[in-house]
Amino acid sequence: MAALSWMHDSSVDRTTNGRGLVSDLTFDQIRRLDAGAGERVPTLREALEWSKRTGVRIDIDHKSGDVGAIAQAVREAGAIGNVVIEGPYDRLLRFAELLPGVDTMPKVESAGEIARTCASLRTTVVRLSIAQLRDPAAVRAVHDCGARVAVTVLGAMDSAEGITEAISLGAQMIETGRPDLAARLRESIPGRK
After folding, report:
1. Is residue 172 part of a domain?
2. Most CB atoms within 10 A, among 41, 135, 188, 193?
């Protein structure tokens, strides 16, 4: 299997010293780019191995790429318990078939949609928006179906204040560009682990 690079954005402009669309670059071209402080863009396999070593879960935000190849990489790395996969509903169903027990993270539009989504995907994580996280009924609906609450705090919310608010409102998984800060804050809030 060819190496799969680990890129979130469709271009390399924001996260590396390079320019251009990921789809227009070869793996070797991406691999030569500086992703900060001399770090190279990891392969998916390298990211999965890092996750296993550190205990930090990897959010695979599936926008494109072969579902089967990604599932195979996760399975071969023995990392099913180290990832959560988000993306379009039909692809999440496929990931769930290929990786029994994997956490899928669907986005929902309303609290009423949560129970239906949990049942049909057998998901264990539901991604809420910040507005939904501020609605106790939505958080309760996620817990009622046996799932965990996830939220994204990137951008202006990716700060000590934003992360603390998300934790205090019930977020159990937080997508952040500052995992070290989130881990420290989570440990500092009584009753949260």
Report:
1. yes
2. 41
> Residue 126 falls within a domain, yes or no?
yes
Question: Which run of H or E residues covers position 173?
Answer: strand 173-175
Number of domains making up the chain: 1
- CA dist 178 and 69 (Å) reads 28
**Which residue, among 127, 125, 129, has the nearest Cα to 145 in the 3D structure?**
125
Mean pLDDT of 97-116: 87
Q: Are 179 and 143 in contact (CB under 8 A)?
A: no
Let me know if 87 is exposed, middle or buried by CB neighbors in 10 A (0-12, 13-18, 19+): buried
pTM greater than 0.70 (yes/no) = yes
CA dist 25 and 19 (Å) reads 10
Residue 125: give its domain's CATH number: 3.20.20.190
For 23-44, b/e burial (b = at least 16 CB within 10 A) is: eebeeeebeebebeeeeebbbb
**Predicted local distance difference test score (pLDDT) of residue 142:** 93
Does residue 105 have a pLDDT over 90? no
Asked if the structure places residue 146 within a domain, the reply is yes
Residue 107: pLDDT band (50, 70, 90) is confident
